[in-house]
């Protein structure tokens, strides 16, 4: 079909990730396979299900399991200082004996090279985990990539605590090029024209600065890094090297918004917008 190497980057965005889940389900419906995928935060979970070929699995996590108090709740936060129970999401539900297990064997066998971005809590530096860092029923890299500061504890992998990958590399399309991609499909979960502001990030950064000052600095700079990266992606899109796929609006969904009707609407937008990829390929 093509001779060049095509990557896909999913920037995540909490429950807004249902949009990218829709795009990736369109890809599975139409036999679109990427050579490489890089996921940030919720994007890391989206892409490992994509590698496994489990169409609809991500949709269920956002619209069904995400409504459960075990998944995300104030009760979780009061009990264990983490609003989202990563062990429930990527363990209880996802393990081989879970309610909706990841097809680990299929994910590992997929020719798509996989990376999940996390941020070292102590250094603020990006860590790019790959499939070799995954094991059957051990999806710690997805937990680490998705650990929103203050909302969640940093999640340890190999004894090192990690926060959400967006603190260090919120839009990692350049990493895809560095890894040999010729062109990249960039999945955003905010409208392309969105200019992010740091207000919320600064508030959360203050909460973790005493213990993890370098990660806090990365969080404080996240909006600026995001805006700069999207601007660069637009330049590359004009050259035909990047395709930006983004919703025209978020249906009122923010990072932790749980509204089933709105989530379904945003998912359908993703299914619809996935068609843009066909011409790019």
Question: Can you walk me through this structure?
Answer:
The chain is built from 13 helices and 8 strands. The protein has helices spanning 18-29, 42-52, 57-63, 74-80, 86-92, 104-109, 140-145, 173-178, 199-208, 213-220, 222-238, 260-273, 275-280, and strands spanning 6-10, 36-40, 113-120, 126-130, 155-157, 160-164, 183-187, 242-245. Strands 1, 2, 3, 4, 5, 6, 7 and 8 form an 8-stranded mixed beta sheet that branches.
What is this structure, in a nutshell?
This protein has 13 helices and eight strands. It is α/β, with parallel strands linked by helices.
Task: Itemize the secondary structure elements and their pairings.
Blueprint: E1 6-10, H1 18-29, E2 36-40, H2 42-52, H3 57-63, H4 74-80, H5 86-92, H6 104-109, E3 113-120, E4 126-130, H7 140-145, E5 155-157, E6 160-164, H8 173-178, E7 183-187, H9 199-208, H10 213-220, H11 222-238, E8 242-245, H12 260-273, H13 275-280
Parallel strand pairs: 1-2, 1-7, 2-3, 7-8
Antiparallel strand pairs: 3-4, 3-6, 5-6
Helix pairs in contact: 1-2, 1-12, 9-10
Count of beta strands:
8
Low-confidence stretches: none
Class derived from helix and strand content: alpha/beta
Provide mean pLDDT, rounded.
96
How far apart the termini lie comes to 8 Å
The quaternary organization reads as single chain
Q: Categorize the overall geometry.
A: globular
Work out the radius of gyration.
17 Å
What is the H/E string? EHEHHHHHEEHEEHEHHHEHH
Helicity, as a percent range: 40-55%
Fraction in beta strands: 5-15%
Q: Largest sheet, described in full?
A: 8 strands, mixed
Number of DSSP helices? 13
């Amino acid at each position: 079909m093509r001779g060049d190497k095509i990557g896909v980057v999913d920037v995540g965005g909490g429950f807004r990730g249902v949009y990218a889940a829709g795009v990736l389900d369109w890809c599975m419906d139409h036999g679109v396979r990427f050579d490489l995928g890089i996921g940030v935060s919720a994007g890391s979970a989206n892409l490992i299900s994509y590698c496994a070929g489990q169409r609809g699995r991500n949709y269920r996590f956002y619209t069904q399991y995400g409504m459960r108090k075990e998944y995300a709740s104030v009760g979780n936060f009061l009990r264990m200082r983490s609003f989202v129970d990563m062990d429930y999401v990527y363990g209880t539900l996802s393990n081989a004996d879970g309610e909706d297990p990841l097809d680990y064997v299929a994910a590992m066998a997929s020719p798509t090279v996989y990376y999940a971005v996390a941020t070292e809590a102590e250094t603020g530096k990006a860590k790019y985990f790959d499939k070799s860092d995954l094991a059957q029923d051990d999806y710690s890299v997805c937990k680490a990539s998705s650990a929103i500061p203050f909302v969640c504890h940093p999640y340890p992998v190999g004894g090192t605590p990690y926060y959400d990958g967006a603190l260090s590399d919120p839009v990692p399309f350049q990493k895809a090029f560095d890894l040999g991609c010729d062109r990249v499909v960039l999945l955003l979960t905010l409208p392309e024209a969105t200019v992010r502001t740091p207000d919320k990030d600064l508030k959360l950064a203050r909460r973790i600065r005493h213990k993890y000052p370098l990660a806090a600095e990365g969080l404080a700079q996240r909006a600026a890094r995001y805006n700069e990266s999207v601007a660069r992606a637009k330049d590359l899109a004009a050259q035909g090297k990047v395709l930006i796929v983004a919703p025209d609006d978020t249906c009122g969904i923010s990072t932790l918004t749980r509204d089933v009707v709105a989530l379904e609407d945003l998912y359908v937008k993703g299914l619809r917008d996935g068609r843009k990829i066909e011409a790019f390929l």
